[in-house]
Amino acid sequence: MKSTLTGLCKLSSDNPPREEELEIQAMDAFEKSGKQNEVGKISLADILKYCTENPEARSWMEYYDDPYELDLNKQEILDAEIDYADESQFPARNPQMTAASDGDRFAYDNGNALSAQLDAPWVKTIESLIPTQYVNERIPASAPDTKLELEWIHGYSAENCKNNVRYASTGEICYHAARAGIIYNSIDHKQRYNLDHTEDIVR
Q1: pTM of the complete model beyond 0.70
Q2: Where are the alpha helices (DSSP H) in 54-89?
């Protein structure tokens, strides 16, 4: 009771009751409950009964109790007054509005997006990497007349696969990496490949 009253008084900027007053009320509650000679405890029911019967304790409770509800005239809201239709209507968004709200200036191409992209710092970094003898040359758009050739596969699929290394009857080691099947000859230090898979080998 002391902690509750003190806290409520602080919230309402009121002066809390003196500690002597609270002690008098506590001793009176023990006396009225008939348990003053026991282990120093009374039940919650006894406390509530005392607070409702004692005028001073009841005045504290009524002072900080919820206010009575005023008898206000309540007016029902008609269905016609609720703008259900307006609540589900959103203005149509064009690409420019979408880009502006999402903060993505490249979400649409309005002429300014391309110029902004060309002014990006990484564009100048790439330009500085072009060899000087090719700066003024036009890069051909056609595919080059060369092709890549697989020389060696460094690695082995062990993250998503287990127990996937075998010995062939020839003594060669068979395993896989990504989508490539590999046969390794440890004597000649050569690899042979099977590249027929289109997805990673997982078994």
Answers
A1: no
A2: 55-63, 84-87
